[in-house]
Amino acid sequence: MTAVTDQDHTDHTDRADHTDHAAHPADHAEEAVSEGGSGEDGGGAPVEGGASGAVEVVETEGVVETEEVVEVEESVEGAHARVGDDSCGRTDSSGAWDDGLIARRVNETAGGEPVAVVEARGAGAPVAAPLAYDGALRSRLDALRELVGLSRTRLDSRTLSEAGRVLDEAAARRRLSGQHTVVAIAGATGSGKSQLFNALAGVTISETGVRRPTTAAPIACSWSDGSASLIERLGIPPRLRRRPLQSAEMEAQLRGLVLVDLPDHDSAAVQHREQVDRVLALVDAVIWVVDPEKYADAVLHERYLRPMAGHAEVMFVVLNQIDRLPGEATDQVLDDLRRLLDEDGIALGEYGEPGATVLALSALTGDGVGELREALGQFVAERGAPARRISADVDAAAWRLRPVYATGRRTGLSEEARDEFAVRLADAVGATAAGEAAERAWLRNANRACGTPWLRLWRWYQVRLEPVTGRLPLRAQAEEEATARQRVEQAVRTVADRASAGLPAPWAQAVREAAVRGSQGLPEALDELAARAGLPPGRPPRPGWWPAAVLAQASMTLLQIVGGLWLVGQIVGFMAPNLGVPVLLMVAGIIGGPLVEWSCRIAARGPARRYGMEAERRLREAAAGCGRARVLDPVAAELLRYREVREQYGRVLGVEAGVR
Amino acid sequence: MVTLDVRPQLLDALSALRDRVAAARFPLPLPGAPRARANRDELLAQLDDYLVPRLRQPEAPLLAVVGGSTGAGKSTLVNSLVGRRVSEAGVLRPTTRTPVLVCHPEDHHWFSGMRVLPDLTRVWVPQQDGGDDLLLPGEDPTRVLRVETADTLPPGLALLDAPDVDSLVADNRTLAAELICAADIWVMVTTAARYADAVPWHLLRTAKEYDATLVTVLDRVPHQVVSEVSRQYAALLTKAGLGDVPRFTVPELPESAWGGGLLPATAVAPLRTWLVHQAQDPASRQHTLARTARGVLDSLKARMPELAGAAAAQYAAALRLTAAVDGAYDSEHARVRGRLQAGAVLAGDALKRWRAFPLDCSAAELLDALVESLAALLLCAVTAADERVDEAWRREPAAGAPELTGRDPALETPEHRIGLAVRRWRRELEEYAEEEVRDLERSVAPDPEVIAALVATALLGGRRARTAGEGLAERLGAHGALRLRDRGGRLLTEHLDRVVHAERERRLAPLDALDVHPEPQAELIAALSVLQKER
């Protein structure tokens, strides 16, 4: 109870420093604490008054929360609420103010703990300083967060839940102590987890026995203070938190270690397995305890070791009960265990490479426990485990997300596919046929203009004989559905398929949807466009030689007439008989007329082709433009979004470049 | 009631049932399919390995299969029971990879043939060092049974050392389950460290379910804790409803496993006595055999309906898949007919050609454009139907079967097939037109190609091609034009139906190839009821 009064004291001073407004939350916190205390006194509620060991935990947390609230209030209130400027100045000068306070509190509550040790280890940093991730990991986490945010509209929440969990855990772990490493001892029932736990702690904390399964709930043991919130996160109630045997030498070695004894994962008691799964997701490192009888159990390898192969760096595999093995058999079994781990895909930390540490020991005789303690001490002193665990989690989450992000080949809309889309749209509006029709119509008109009058007369007669086909009434009625709907639909489908080829399913779906959305109203737009841009405006252009040709044709006809009249005049005796000249004139006219017509036709081919091409080009371009604006651009935007996400995913993987 | 006389009717009913079970297939990847497949295999194995041979030859020796977790000391136990090293024991797990059957030399003929465990190849020579070199090339190393003889074993009793039930090698696990199911007496071995493990308990529950003759051995118990551990174990067994199962405790001795040595005879004496008693006392033997056989027969009552249910689920899923295909193609078929009537073919290129006809466009060009446009319409309908099928199938877990997903795109495309069909229609239409023209008694008969183009336009152009019909009537006379249009229209419908039908069949072909029928369900149930009547 000394701890509680101690806190009351600080709270009072705080309250004195600040305005009463700011003191309200502090009041509440104090009430909560005192309630907990009274519950314990009365022996009432088992959760609140669970154990006296809980009091210091609750108290430390209470301080953190209260102080934070006060600080927020203070900054909002501004300068006028700041009565105790001198106290602020004091906390500011010590750097991170809350750290300083907590550090002070920890030193006070720790009681007999020598301060010198803290300072030597901390080197200026407070004991419970929150965990700091290094730049690479931080950027990967940021990228993952970004990725989840970008993908939320495209992927269902179930796919993203694992990534979300990793982010949450990373954030939660980050807020907690970076000076501590939480290590869980996991293993099959009867492998001696509790025995090892006790051997490491130096006292019998966890119950051991022949009764299977023995341990039913996780038990935590902390080698130094300030880890309460970490243990809280594991959901271990205060009555299951213990301290190791107090011995300075051991303490220095394993300082910062929080050891958690887990229930078994393979017994018939299902709730044990659930506990294990829950806690394993939260701890920084795991010691897998196996024994010579069970080291090859399928359940251990298939359910735990293989899925966690990426976490090899934060993994110890300990072969316990070597006292049951005769002589050289230990090495044999250890080798076999290494082989199995290798088959599971777990990197083994041999020859200084990063990976799982494999040790053989006997918790019963103490053989090899010293080595494990040493390895653990070094591991904990490095303080890299939480970050490495989070990093491995990110790896695993990213790997699991691979099918929804990564592609085996290059994606995107190729130039070829775009061109093909344009061609299909042009087909749908009938650009080729329109162009050809325009060309032929022009040619026909030219022929008619430059043709001999006799030929025209004959043609007119022919046309009068011919029954009229559908062209006249068709022209009159309003055009509807001039564009081939089926071709547009097919064109959109093809281009969507091309664009989404190779994309992961959700993104392919998004691309397809974008294309379909864009194609709504596309046929109508094309209808309108075809009516508008069908033919070049105005009268068809005529080449400069046109009047000359018409004149030549007319003069040829004139020659025929003149020659004919002349001949007629001679026949009736009106004129002097001279056969040569009029016959020559007439023959010239008769031959020259078709000659002029023929040469005109040859000469008109070029302009006609140009005219038809122009008509075709206009339709083609208009259709392509329409298609681009309505379909290709949204599709390209969707592809761009995917590419962005893909890059983000690459960043999550930790690959800066080389994203295919 | 099963007696131990040979009963031909029962055997007939049983082999009929066996054939039905063997014929059951679960090809669609439904949630329950892997389980159903495993159940089927297990049931089949049990019928072949145990029930049929046992009912056919009740006088065959008792087979006791020793099963348990890895490292429980099964091999050591078998060796100790036999009195010499027949099965390899060691510290490395899993130790036993090849099952070993030990019997009295007089009983050898019972096991050397394929009477029981017909799936396993017999190996005669005892293995010198690792059995691998004894195997014929290409043979599955786990599907091998080593048969050993030992005088020390009484006649009428055979012991089988099975691989681990929780082995890291998945094949070993299946084999172990299969072997245990073939036993007259199930000997379950567990240890002081393991007796609460989940996996062996599954097996114990199975034994209870099948009402097999079961005996459990608590092996490798350190002598300090014998009483406590065995009390705990008894409590667990009682809780699971297995309190009356004979329990034997074997202490952990220095000779235990780690040297591969034999336990002293005293350690395994009670178990040995019990086994020998079961084998040699006629009443006990009768009881033991009848109990296990009856248990398996009884279990059929639950297992067969389960299989039948899975078969029904398969059929239902196949029906759903087929219905999705039918629905998609039917609706697309209806849509394409509507579009045809509305004259959707006479659009785009074809419309432009028609407008230019006959001044600036020849009949052949018009016909080309129409045919191409018709092909585009059909292709669009077929791809749309395919897309709808894909969409519907994506929601069906059964559609994940590799046979259904792996369509070969390299084969001829629907575009190609539709183009073929449409061109054939054109050719036939041209023939019709020629026939009509030939029948005309006029000196200036119209060009058959023009007639063909006009009739195609009239058929495909809907309302907007009215003038094509008029032109046709002018050229052929009202009667001839009507006849030609009728014939052409019928031809068009026919070709359209044929194209859609062919595409639908193509889509359904892989599903049909999976051969999922409603019959297996009824047949399984019928076989079961025949068997029930015979008992």
TrEMBL record, chain B:
InterPro entries linked: Dynamin_N, GTPase_Era-like, P-loop_NTPase
Boundaries of every Dynamin N-terminal domain copy: 65-195
Highest taxon of source: Bacteria
Name used for this protein in its record: Dynamin family protein
Species whose genome carries this gene: Streptomyces justiciae
